[in-house]
From TrEMBL:
It holds the Pfam family ADH_zinc_N_2. InterPro entries: ADH-like_N (IPR013154), ER (IPR020843), GroES-like_sf (IPR011032), NAD(P)-bd_dom_sf (IPR036291), Zn-ADH-like_protein (IPR051397). This is Medium chain dehydrogenase/reductase family protein. Residues 13-341 form the Enoyl reductase (ER) domain. The lineage of its organism: Bacteria, Bacillati, Actinomycetota, Actinomycetes, Kitasatosporales. It comes from Streptomyces andamanensis.
Length: 343
């Protein structure tokens, strides 16, 4: 029998998708407290679109293996890790390193994936599901009967968020280009075309008293519209700067500008709230509490998927060695949901 080999995708610098390199090497060994996961599914997130331009807020130094999250089976456990974990299907949130056939992580960072879930489907709700769940339930605290506006409703995060919001009993307005509107209507979402329509005017017509929450990953000057659309008591959750992906200059400035606005809005005498959500900010709670919260929230999302409250949106499944096609597809502005990578 042949020993397994490591296959990984390396981002060597600022390159076109064809510049990503597929490399082969040795499978990592499990150090004490760590496990090795044989990847079954990873995916292309917006973060990688920014990273390959050198424009991620927390840009890792080149070269590195991208891949924000993964689902796979534990194949080796280091000292101090219960051996029962070997053979278990798990998910892990990484930020980088997921685009590999085998990945070593701390055993405390893995979250069990329910037996009935397809790995690719589970993959679509790791970073996207945690982000959507925490923004909805920990930041905006959306209640049944409320109205929410979700920008990018067809995207990886957006497609989970609109479903979780609808499952919580909210009326959901979602912005997306027209090709996605039928699918959004089928999910109970009222779609608005951000490419051709006056979004604030449409939203005001749909919710004359304002909306209870806005989830905005677009950033830039348009964030002011998101704030103004809030009803009294409403919450703006800003969580990205998609509109500045192709800008020149500092990759941190767009986020710092948003943080400044959020600070200012919260300082105003008003009954509205603004947050800048960052999935890693919870680390200030301490490692154990951060991990416990991620585990609880991802487990809740997996349960929603198992129970059919939400449906996974796998935009396409491509093998790791077709990474250039996968990245081009994810960046094409045509996909609904997440582009998933298989070994
Ligand atoms: N803060 C955090 O912790 C955190 C965690 C996860 C994700 N995020 C952020 O969440 C966002 C979505 O990530 P994702 O992985 O779900 O991305 P994705 O699957 O690529 O989806 C992006 C969505 O944004 C839309 N979009 C892209 N550029 C836009 C623009 N300039 N104006 C308006 N809409 C635009 C796309 O619409 P089309 O398909 O029509 O182009 C698509 O619906 C990203 O900004 C990412 O940085 C933040």
């Amino acid at each position: 029998m042949h020993a397994e080999k490591l296959v990984e995708v390396v981002l060597p610098g600022v390159v076109e998708p064809e510049g990503l390199e597929v490399r082969r090497g040795e499978v990592p060994v499990a150090a004490p407290g760590r496990v090795v996961i044989r990847m079954e599914a990873t995916g292309v997130s917006f973060a990688e679109q920014q990273m390959r331009r050198g424009r991620y807020y927390d840009q890792p130094p080149f070269p590195f293996v991208p891949g924000y999250d993964l689902v796979g089976t534990v194949v080796a456990a280091g000292d101090g890790v219960p051996s029962a974990l070997v053979g278990t299907r798990v998910a892990a949130l990484l930020k980088v390193g997921g685009w590999a056939s085998h990945v070593a992580v701390d055993a405390a960072d893995v979250v069990p994936v329910p037996a009935g879930l397809d790995p690719a489907e589970a993959e679509t709700v790791v970073i996207n599901g945690i982000t959507a769940w925490q923004m909805l339930h920990r930041k905006a605290r959306v209640r049944a009967g409320g109205t929410v506006l979700v920008h990018g409703a067809n995207g990886g995060v957006g497609s989970v968020l609109v479903q979780l919001a609808a499952a919580a009993g909210a009326k959901v307005i979602g912005t997306a280009s027209a090709r996605h509107h039928d699918a959004l209507r089928a999910k109970g979402v009222v779609p608005v075309d951000y490419r051709t329509e006056d979004v604030p005017a449409r939203v005001r017509a749909l919710a004359p008293g304002g909306v209870d929450a806005v989830f905005d990953h677009v950033g830039g000057p348009g964030i002011v519209d998101s704030w103004r659309l809030l009803a009294p008591g409403g919450t703006l959750v800003s969580y990205g700067t998609a509109s500045t992906r192709d800008d020149e200059g500092s990759q941190q400035l767009p986020v710092l500008k948003l943080l400044g606005r959020v600070w200012l809005w919260n300082a105003l005498p008003n009954r509205r709230h603004a947050y800048f959500y960052n999935v890693w900010a919870g680390r200030s709670l301490g490692r154990d509490r951060f991990r416990a919260r991620l585990r609880a929230d991802l487990t809740s999302v997996f349960r929603a998927l198992e129970q059919g409250e939400i449906t996974a949106q796998v935009a396409a499944r491509l093998p790791l060695d077709r990474i250039a096609d996968a990245v081009r597809l994810a960046e094409s502005g045509t996909v609904a949901g997440k582009v998933v990578l298989n070994p």
